[in-house]
Amino acid sequence: MHKTSAWPLAGAYTVLVVYASLYPFSGWRNQEIPPWEFLFAGWPRYWTGFDVAANVAGYVPLGFLLALSFLRRGNVRFFAAHPNVAAIAVAVGAGTALSFCMESLQAFLPSRVASNVDFGLNVAGTLAGAALAAGLELAGVVDHWSRFRERWFIPQARGALVLLALWPFALLFPAAVPLGLGQVLERLETGLADWLQDTPFLEWLPVRDVELQPLVPAAELLCVGLGAFVPCLLGYTILRSTGRRAVFALAAIGLGTLVTALSAALSWGPAHAWAWLSMPVRLGLLFGLMLSLLMLAVPRRGCAAVLLLVLVVHLGVLNAAPASAYFTDTLQAWEQGRFIRFNGLAQWLGWIWPYAVLVYVLLRVSRPDATSRIPP
Questions:
Q1: Is there a contact between 374 and 297 (Cβ–Cβ < 8 Å)?
Q2: DSSP 3-state assignment of 27?
Q3: Three-class DSSP category at 177
């Protein structure tokens, strides 16, 4: 029996909600008022439709995943009479507790304002998501998904499915190279240098002797191609047949292209949604698709080994190049503009996603795989 992917996704989404709610984690102060005082405050003087939509929409996936994980993990045996009502109650209770903690902690942050309206909207979003999950369960949609999963994926597919579900959201935050997730070395060096400033440990920090050079078109082509190839290989490690692999590869690369266009539209405006699709990028997408087609018949364990190699090469080439000044301005627009509430929802995913895949594949390769062969 397979394990549900909803539970780890709910945990991951909870972490992201905490990050987005408490960003930027600086300037903590004690106002000497109870942190729950926001519950009794009046109606806020200033609010926008974007704020309302963000507070509701931000908790809808949480309620959906919590209710779904409750229903699919077998906990309903204690509530056999009303399992869907119990799932909604558990999800709303957890979402309410999380929102209350986040609003209470925001009372200690100068850049955030605790609000009873935000709290109510968060609870409403959780309720909407939980009700949606219960409705889909009653309609039989979740059972259809379970049967689809059994036909397409091996039983031990939960970890890869979670990573694949997070991949489109990781692409939403603008990347210096399209599909180039995991470019963290330059920021990590700068952050460590600032942290160790005025300490004797600053001299211990390794410094690269050569200045980072922008990627040449051939290197950009390689990064785009490998960035499209990685999710395809990850899917190959859990798919049951070569035909399904071909469908998955086309769908994954198509989805990556569309999400990258959405990210560009959010960053530079709808008129520039496809401005990133230069000649090296187009050739890189084609290169990634060709590599994916060549690997269709390779056993799962072989795909996992190739995925390790591809990840190392991709991250090595990507982190050997700096982010352009224009890209830095784009990041500032995201981090200081209206996307600040969603900053942590995509930025950290874009940074850590390939490294999480690396850890997952290392664990997969280290274990024997009884279903390594791929049927035709």
A1: yes
A2: coil
A3: coil
